[in-house]
Design brief:
Layout: H1 23-34, H2 37-46, H3 58-82, H4 99-119, H5 121-131, H6 140-161, H7 165-193, H8 203-234
Helix pairs in contact: 1-7, 1-8, 7-8
Protein name: Amino acid transporter transmembrane domain-containing protein
GO molecular function: L-amino acid transmembrane transporter activity
Main location: membrane
Length: 245
């Protein structure tokens, strides 16, 4: 934030509304950034008082309010500061020859390192259940460490292969998080409440239908634009795609 607000140019110098063709990238990236469906249920299950997870204010609403506020501030003013030169992570725009800027990048790397285990909580829990079905417990720790190492190596390799990580982020957001975080919860909620009542004027059905439509739009448009951009980049004729927040 120190560098973002240093000599901040006037907002009038920036294009505040991007081209319509870039909107799917924005929507997919936002879904990717805001999505936490993989850790929502485990967190609720591990809480001493899970009934306080939802509701008003509730743990989820309080946490999301803080996250949205921080994302909005960093995204908006980061674009105002760097304009079309802003990169997939604003830390990449920081000066290369200043200790303070490099310290921020190191801290960012440490955050990624320490939070990786949280993101791996759900898949590793599923893998552990499969391993528990083995009749033999020999080399159990070796197998667990090997699986974790392979999965992490694949993740890092994917990030290193593609030169334009912004498009990869938007593609993942469009394909996986639009379905896992929007479409499937809306469908499950509708099915669960179908015989129990969908609320006054069927507002639950209307709400879930809108959410499902948004997820489908994000899936189709975001995937198309992201894949097209990746093909251009991999062919060596790509252009820089920036997502305006």
């Amino acid at each position: 934030m120190y560098y973002v607000f240093m000599d901040l140019p006037p907002i009038t110098e920036r294009n505040m509304v991007s081209d319509v063709a870039q909107w799917p990238l924005f929507l997919s990236t936002v879904i990717f950034a805001m999505e936490g469906i993989g850790v929502v249920m485990p967190v609720e299950n591990e809480m001493a008082k899970p009934q306080k997870f939802l509701g008003c204010p509730g743990v989820l609403n309080t946490a999301m309010t803080v996250v949205i506020t921080l994302y909005a501030i960093v995204g908006f003013f980061g674009y105002v500061q760097y304009g079309d030169e802003v990169k997939g992570s604003v830390t990449l725009n920081l000066p290369q020859d200043e200790i303070l800027a490099q310290s921020a990048k190191i801290i960012m790397a440490v955050v990624m390192y320490l939070s990786f285990a949280l993101q791996f909580y759900v898949p590793m829990e599923m893998i552990t259940r499969l391993l528990d079905k083995r009749t033999s417990t020999n080399y159990e720790n070796v197998i667990q460490i090997s699986i974790r190492t392979i999965l992490i190596t694949i993740s890092v390799a994917i990030a290193a292969i593609f030169p334009n990580l912004e498009l990869v982020i938007s593609l993942i957001g469009a394909v996986f998080f639009s379905t896992l975080g929007l479409f499937i919860p809306a469908a499950v909620d509708t099915v669960f409440l179908w015989d129990r009542g969908l609320g006054k004027f069927n507002y639950v059905l209307i709400k879930n239908t809108l959410i499902a439509l948004i997820s489908i739009i994000a899936l189709v448009s975001g995937s198309y634009v992201s894949v097209a951009g990746l093909i251009e980049d991999m062919s060596g004729h790509g252009t820089q795609h920036n997502v305006t927040v």
